[in-house]
UniProtKB/TrEMBL annotation:
This is Cytochrome P450. Keywords: Heme, Iron, Metal-binding, Monooxygenase, Oxidoreductase. Belongs to the cytochrome P450 family. InterPro entries: Cyt_P450, Cyt_P450_CS, Cyt_P450_E_grp-I, Cyt_P450_sf, Cytochrome_P450_monoxygenase. It comes from the Eukaryota. Its cofactor is heme. It holds the Pfam family p450. Gene3D superfamilies: Cytochrome P450. It comes from Dunaliella salina (Green alga).
Length: 267
């Protein structure tokens, strides 16, 4: 991890708060990843676990196992990619107010719709153009880095229709369903697309389904007054590596991370 983030300007302003914080958290993730690797090396992990697979990988040309730096970056990637993303996708899932939860189709529709409106990786993926290409009359020169802004694409009226900003899980009903874990539909890319899309998407969808089905089976959730309406709660979300829910505050006051809800046990 270079500690520079996606913004190339960070290179020139390393003293600013954002790049400094980014470097700090990269260092902390690096230390955590090193602890995980060293623990696994000292005390062998269960066979067939992700850690056991990482330790057993051999470079096909040299025949050597991954070195400490390579193992650390794999573990750090799994920590960043696999934990924050799923946790913050669970939070805004708004099926709490909608539908027959006994049916998995409704649950999937609600998950898809939540990840459409509030995709945790909202700024999308950066990709470098391999050659000069022309997209809708605009030339993208070879070597340029292009962002595919997921949030914007997920709310495009051209793709989703005039109600693109509305929470309507029913738009997913009648879909052919999941292939390799996540719904496939043009303009829907919460896990990115193409050869470098999310390797953990099937697991992530499984986690979302099981955690949400369990929670909703036991509790009824009602958005707390502090959050305002669903629309206000949605608008308060902010991007800090992942898109996080925030408690709306009066103008001029900093937002606080979190999603406040009342939780009523189902009897
Ligand atoms: C709701 C949960 C998740 C979301 C929204 C998500 C989203 C994404 C996205 C958008 C990318 C592509 C990044 C890019 O284009 O550069 C990605 C990559 C990746 N994700 Fe996930 N992810 C989730 C959960 C997970 C889980 C649970 C794991 C692992 C256990 C995981 C492991 C990875 C890895 C290793 C990559 C890098 C793949 C590569 O570079 O080839 N993700 N994820």
């Amino acid at each position: 991890m270079q500690g520079l983030g996606l913004n190339p300007l960070n290179r020139y302003f390393p003293f600013l708060e954002k790049p400094r914080k980014f470097r700090y958290w990269c260092k902390r993730y690096g230390e955590l990843a090193e602890r995980v690797v060293r623990n696994a090396q000292d005390c062998p992990p269960p066979p067939n676990s992700i850690m056991a697979s990482l330790l057993s990988i051999k470079d096909p040309t040299t025949g050597k196992p991954l070195n400490l730096e390579q193992l650390k970056s794999e573990v750090a990637l799994l920590l960043v990619a696999g934990f924050e993303t799923t946790a913050h996708s669970i939070a805004p899932a708004r099926l709490l107010e909608w539908g027959d939860l006994g049916r998995l189709k409704s649950l999937d529709a609600a998950i898809n719709e939540s990840m459409r409106l509030l995709p945790v990786t909202s700024s999308g993926s950066g990709r470098e153009a391999r050659d000069d290409i022309t997209v809708e009359g605009r030339v993208i020169p070879k070597g340029a880095v292009v962002m595919l802004p997921t949030y914007t694409i997920h709310r495009s009226k051209k793709v989703w229709g005039p109600d693109a900003d509305e929470y309507k899980p029913e738009r997913w009903l009648g879909e052919s369903g999941h292939e390799s874990g996540a719904a496939r539909r043009p303009g829907y890319q919460p896990f990115s697309l193409g050869p470098r899309d999310c390797v953990g998407q099937s697991l992530a969808v499984l986690e979302l389904r099981s955690v949400l089905a369990t929670l909703i089976g036991h509790f009824r959730f009602v958005l707390a007054e502090e959050m305002g309406s669903f629309k206000e709660a949605e608008q308060a979300a902010r991007q800090h590596i992942t898109l996080k829910p925030m408690v709306p505050t009066p103008p001029g006051q900093p937002l606080r991370p979190g999603l406040m809800m009342h939780c009523h046990p189902r009897l």
